[in-house]
Amino acid sequence: MTMLAFEKVDKFYGDHHVLKGIDATIGRGEVVVVCGPSGSGKSTLIRTVTRLEAIQKGRILFEGKDVNARDMKINQLRARIGFVFQSFNLFQNLSVRQNLILGPTKVLGMSRDEAVAQAEALLTKVGLAHKIDAMPANLSGGQQQRVAIARALAMKPPLMLFDEPTSALDPEMVQEVLQVMRSLADEGLTMMIVTHEMGFARDVSSRVWFMDQGQLLEDAPPSEFFSQPKHARAQRFLQDVLRPSPMISVPRDAVPA
Q1: Is 32 helix (H, G, I), strand (E, B) or coil?
Q2: How far apart are CA 116 and CA 122, in angstroms?
Q3: Does Transport show up as a keyword for this record (predicted)?
Q4: Spatial contact of 103 and 155, defined as CB atoms under 8 Å apart
Q5: What phi, psi does 212 have (nearest 5°)?
């Protein structure tokens, strides 16, 4: 079953054509990683799903319904689609527990006891049960992002969107977030993920979408995309991102004795 469909989607910023005729689908249970160089339209595309960005042409269908239809209730749409941003977006004045129970109690009508029990279970899932009473400011970036994932899951969304969820993190914190995302993939959650983490894309995704200059140039299984990318721009991108980092030589006299 198709969970999400883009049908000839075009997006403009003034005269700048940001998304050009995007045609693609995501099936239930699929994990699609969207990659490409900076400025290729990846984040703009994922933000159109929940109408954080408007489109000028085409249609976006979530569970068969046009997200831009006049009768589409935007708050109900966003309650059904989890969104994890680069910058965590936790409520800084609320504890971790309060962050996780606010949506379920206010939007889903869940009882407080049920919401707290769910929060405890979700925090256990992301390895942060011991931080339930902490304030976001007292958490590391990786911990804040794991709480943000748990908060999105608390709304029981059939679709999760991730917009570069690790790009604001220190390198040592990246893996703890990716590990949570791997476990969600293993559980069969449908996910659309914008990321530069190519190892994760190769290991976890069902399909890889490669974008450049507002176009979706490749849509392929990871085994095919990483071994035989069809488009020259995709080949160049992979050469750049997978090239080993050059060794940095330090002059001997720069090292204290």
Answers
A1: strand
A2: 10
A3: yes
A4: yes
A5: -155, 135
Report d(CA 151, CA 126) in Å as an integer.
11
8 A C-beta contact, residue 48 and residue 60: yes
| Rounded CA separation 129/122 (Å) | 8
Evaluate if pTM is beyond 0.85. Answer: yes
The one-letter code for the residue type at 57 is K
Indicate the domain borders of the chain: 2-80+159-242, 95-157
User: 212 pairs with which residues across the strands?
Assistant: 215
Pairing of strands 65-66, 57-62: antiparallel
- Give the CATH fold of the 2-80+159-242 domain: Rossmann fold (3.40.50)
pLDDT in tens, the chain (257 residues): 899 999 999 999 999 999 999 999 999 999 999 999 999 999 999 999 999 999 999 999 999 999 999 999 999 999 999 999 988 889 999 999 999 999 999 999 999 999 999 999 999 999 999 999 999 999 999 999 999 999 999 999 999 999 999 988 888 889 999 999 999 999 999 999 999 999 999 999 999 999 999 999 999 999 999 999 999 999 999 998 877 644 444 444 434 43
- Token pair, residue 182, equals 């791997």
Report CA 65 to chain centroid distance, whole Å: 21
Tokens of 34: 């969207």
Sign of the CA dihedral running 137, 141, 146, 152: positive
Q: In what order do the strands lie in the sheet with 65-66?
A: 16-27, 2-13, 57-62, 65-66
